[in-house]
Amino acid sequence: MSVAVFHPGTQHSWQTALALQQLEQLEWYATSIFHQPGRWPYRLERIAPEPLAARLRAEFGRFAHPGLDPALVRTGGLAEWFERIANRAGWRLLAQRIDAFGNRRFVAQIAAAISADKPFALWGYNGSSSRPFELAKLHGRTCILDRTIGDFRVFNAAMDGLQDRYGEWFLPSERGYSASHIAADQQEYELADAILVGSEAAAATIRQHAPGQAAKLRVLPYCYDERLFASQPAPQPLRPDEPLRLLFVGQLSPRKGVHHLLEAFAMLPPGAATLTMVGDLRVPRQVFARYADRITYIPQVARHQVPAIMAQHHLLVFPSYFEGSALTLLEALASGLGIIQTRASGNGAGPETGLVLDRIDTPSLHAALLQALDDRDLVNRWRAAAQTAAQGYTFARYRANIAALLAEMGLA
């Protein structure tokens, strides 16, 4: 049976759609953003003056997926673009409202397709699947929920405790999810025939707070983008005299543990290591400014720039409290980086490629960084093993896992 995929944004949905297309089981792929040079707003990259045109090409290029058949792609709506503009401007609460509005509009646009007479299953993502799944059930469709994050009740509990100790690090938009949001998540769980998550850590959060849905859970590990990361150079051993180059990639927010990373790094001997942080700043600027003179901060960059940045570093440090499974960990493996991460971060470091921290606090992270500083041979072994470990997260492996899932569900 064919499968229709929908996502009002992007995330890894394009890889899901491509895998289904290659399995000859993609009915259609609906998304708000898909690079089509002949359509608005993508035509702007051809008519805008430089350097604006270059910036547009970089931004639009993030949504170019040449392997997907455009005839199977359905797009509509500009809400996703407005949400991105609001986020870039720092208007977080406005961006959240636009996201909610855009999700509702997106669902209305695909309702007719879901109600078609042809039999197919529906593959949707958290935050936008309740209404589509309700419609799908009226037509006897199998519904697959791809939840890209853990259960937000775990997030709320973690952030509640953290705000007591690190309240000044929080923006208003980063404090927690409402009861109505969590109720909508619960409805998606109940409507789904299968609930997919990217890691065992994320699955555990759903078992904890929605035990009645545990039988539906499947762990479907993500893959990295091989167009960008498959040709990364093999890592070279650290020289005895060079500083350890640390990297963080992701939103700079309390959820990601950036306060612990900045505190732990500040405790290291001066000159022993460098720290580069890449991503959207989601902590108050006046708090971040206390540490800014010791680190290199790079705001959001185009996806094609990330491999070169990773190749210039030795260790990815990712002390997150709450994830689905962070793709940046897989990208780091493919780039030959060792990894220091928390267990909640998802798939990434193993015994041969880094450290997984069970405690999330500054002393634990500081101890891990000191271990890496004191044992360069260990770091070199982590890095030497990383690209082999990354082969467990290729697109071919992801596609094979989808094929196995569909066969298990009787949809092959």
From TrEMBL:
Protein origin, superkingdom: Bacteria
Keywords: Transferase
Example GO BP: lipopolysaccharide biosynthetic process
InterPro entries per record: Glyco_trans_1 (IPR001296)
Keyword NADP: no
Residue span(s) of domain Glycosyl transferase family: 237-387
UniProt GO molecular function: glycosyltransferase activity
Protein name stated in the entry: Glycosyltransferase family 4 protein
